[in-house]
Design a protein that fits this description.
Blueprint (H helix, E strand, L loop, with lengths): L6 H4 L1 H46 L5 H11 L10 E5 L11 E10 L3 E2 L2 E2 L3 E10 L1
Antiparallel strand pairs: 1-2, 2-5, 3-4
Helix pairs in contact: 2-3
C-alpha cells in the first residue's frame, strides 16, 4: 500500500528544523559557556588557596608576592593579567596566628547574540580563601 505525501507535509520538516535548530544551538552554546565559567571558578579557588597558603606560611615578603603566586597558579585557560587580587590584611607578611584572606576576581565575557555580535555583558567571578 502506498502512502501519499501532500505538498504541505513536505515543507513541515523544514519548518520544524528551522524552529528547533536555533534553540538546540543556543542550548549547546549555553552548556559550553557554563562549563567554561565553572572551570574558571575552580581555577580561581585553587589559585586563591595557593596564595593564601603562601601568605600564612610567611614565605612571601609582600602582597605583590602573594598576588604573583596566585597568577602563576592559574592555568592557560585564563588570562592572568586580568586577574584582580585583594588581600586582607593589605600589608603582608601578616602577624603570626592572624587570619589572611585572599580574594581573586576575574571578568568573563558572556556570549549572547546582541545585534549579531556574540559578545555580551561581563560576569565577574570571584573566589575567596581564608587561612590562619
Amino acid at each position: 500500500m502506498k502512502t501519499r505525501h501532500h505538498a504541505s507535509q513536505a515543507g513541515t520538516a523544514f519548518v520544524e528544523a528551522a524552529i528547533v535548530t536555533p534553540m538546540l544551538l543556543m542550548m549547546i552554546i549555553s552548556m559550553m559557556q557554563f562549563g567554561y565559567i565553572y572551570g574558571v571558578l575552580t581555577n580561581l579557588r585553587g589559585a586563591s588557596a595557593v596564595a593564601a597558603r603562601m601568605a600564612v606560611l610567611g614565605t612571601s615578603r609582600s602582597r605583590l608576592d602573594v598576588c604573583e603566586a596566585a597568577r602563576n597558579a592559574m592555568t592557560s585557560m585564563v588570562d592572568a593579567s586580568q586577574l584582580d587580587c585583594q588581600t586582607n590584611p593589605s600589608v603582608l607578611p601578616a602577624p603570626i596566628n592572624s587570619p589572611v584572606a585572599i580574594t581573586l576576581t576575574y571578568p568573563i565575557p558572556i556570549l549572547s547574540s546582541n545585534a549579531g555580535v556574540l559578545k555580551g555583558p561581563t560576569l565577574m567571578v570571584s573566589a575567596r580563601t581564608t587561612m590562619q
